[in-house]
Amino acid sequence: QVQLVESGGGVVQPGMSLRLSCAASAFTFGAYGMHWVRQGPGKGLEWVAYISYNGGYRSYADTVKGRFTISRDQPKKMLYLEINSLRPDDTAVYYCAKDGIGASLSHWGQGALVTVSS
Amino acid sequence: SFELTQPPSVSVSPGQTANITCSGDILSKQSVYWYQQKPGQAPVSLIYKDTERPSGIPERFSGSRSGTTFTLTITGVQAEDEADYYCQSYNSGATYVFGPGTKVTVL
Predict the structure, then answer these.
(1) DSSP assignment, residue B21?
(2) Residue of A50, A62, A108 lying closest to B96 (CB–CB)
(3) Of A118, A103, A117, A99, which Cα lies nearest the Cα of A4?
(4) Contact, B77 vs B12, CB < 8 A?
(5) Nearest by CB: B98 against A45, A109, A111
(6) Inter-chain residue contact B1 with A102, CB threshold 8 Å
(7) For every one of its 107 residues, what pLDDT tens digit does chain B have, with 9 covering 90 and above?
(8) Minimal CA–CA distance to B36: which of B102, B107, B91?
(9) B70 to chain A: which residues are within 8 Å by CB?
(10) Which of A14, A55, A90, B27 gives a 20 to 30 Å CA spacing to A68?
(11) What are the beta bridge partners of residue A5?
């Protein structure tokens, strides 16, 4: 059974940096693209970033471009999201998700909560 | 950027049918994907490529298309179907977008 487990969330001050991690298991990690999606408190889903199966292509939502960096470590089966210059409106649950058929996000982790507050 | 539109809410009695629409200009070229999210839980994939159901998803969930409007239909709604439903699509350059979500209330 596909498993995705996020970690690295917490309370951080505005302007600081944070790295989220996502541990993948029970599927061939190196064969799939991966995503980060966030959800602010009481808000809808917002797609944040995508990385191709081999890390050769990355894309970002306009709202985070330049501050967020998605990366992956194939041997460790880990997905990462580096967030710089954190702002209060970055406060959200951050989900990692696995690419599925077509442009679907077939499996999701349980999420990591990031709270940006002084 | 591109946007998807969904109704904010839909109310339905148990056993009845709920229809949730998703529209957007980009949908003339791309497929739609649907997700269910219950409070405090991660989203679950319900429909992919407009009409296909992943394994394990009940048959009462179905997807359809009419032009650039896509519809998620829940036939014979059950109390456990009360949740938020999101449509999602894709644009060139591997950018993705979610609709604003529709809250389904089972009366």
Answers:
(1) E
(2) A50
(3) A99
(4) yes
(5) A45
(6) no
(7) 589 999 999 999 999 999 999 998 877 788 999 999 999 999 999 999 999 999 999 999 999 998 888 999 999 999 999 999 999 999 877 899 999 999 999 99
(8) B102
(9) none
(10) B27
(11) A23
